From TrEMBL:
Domain of life per record: Eukaryota
Organism annotation: Myripristis murdjan
Gene Ontology molecular function: phosphatidylcholine lysophospholipase activity; phospholipase A2 activity; retinyl-palmitate esterase activity
A single BP term in Gene Ontology: phospholipid metabolic process
Record-linked InterPro entries: PLB1
Protein name (database record): Uncharacterized protein
GO cellular component terms attached to this protein's record: brush border membrane
Length: 149
């Protein structure tokens, strides 16, 4: 079943999505995580203003969905991973709030070889830098070294 544009079902999903985003921003902007030297939370809004891409015929591009038309496909996962990665390298205030879903691997941003500034916030006034060691690009970034300047 496909919801029609502006159907009550689609409007309800949009409303719930907006409420979730609002509550997430509220949680992060509060003082719950202030004063922590070992933890920070940074909103990565790369899907905030995104939409399902359309084909040339004006239909939803089903290549972004799995065969059940509910879960996202490998292509969509790749696009979202690129957008998340790029946003993590952007400083606060310059993070992208959309994803144009163009399949182009050249749009992947790379951290500098010498150093990459973790683009987030720290509760303290100190500037935090991260040196990414060779092999640090594991899923959990387990071999990350923090350097306080």
């Amino acid at each position: 079943m496909i919801a029609e544009d502006n159907s009550p079902e689609l409007e309800e999903i949009k409303r719930i999505n907006q409420e979730y985003q609002t509550e997430t921003r509220y949680l992060i902007s509060g003082d719950r995580y202030d004063g922590r030297e070992d933890f920070t939370v940074v909103l990565q809004p790369y899907l905030h203003n995104s939409f399902v891409p359309y084909t040339g015929e004006g239909q939803a591009d089903l290549s972004f969905f799995s065969v059940d038309c509910f879960h996202i496909s490998e292509r969509a996962h790749a696009e979202m991973a690129i957008a998340l990665w790029n946003n993590m390298l952007e400083p606060l205030g310059r993070k992208q709030a959309y994803n144009n879903f163009t399949y182009d691997r050249s749009k992947i941003h790379c951290p500098s070889e010498v150093w990459t500034k973790i683009s987030g916030s720290r509760p303290s006034s100190a500037r935090w830098w991260a040196a990414l060691l060779p092999g640090s690009f594991s899923p959990a970034f387990r071999r990350k070294t923090w350097i306080k300047q």
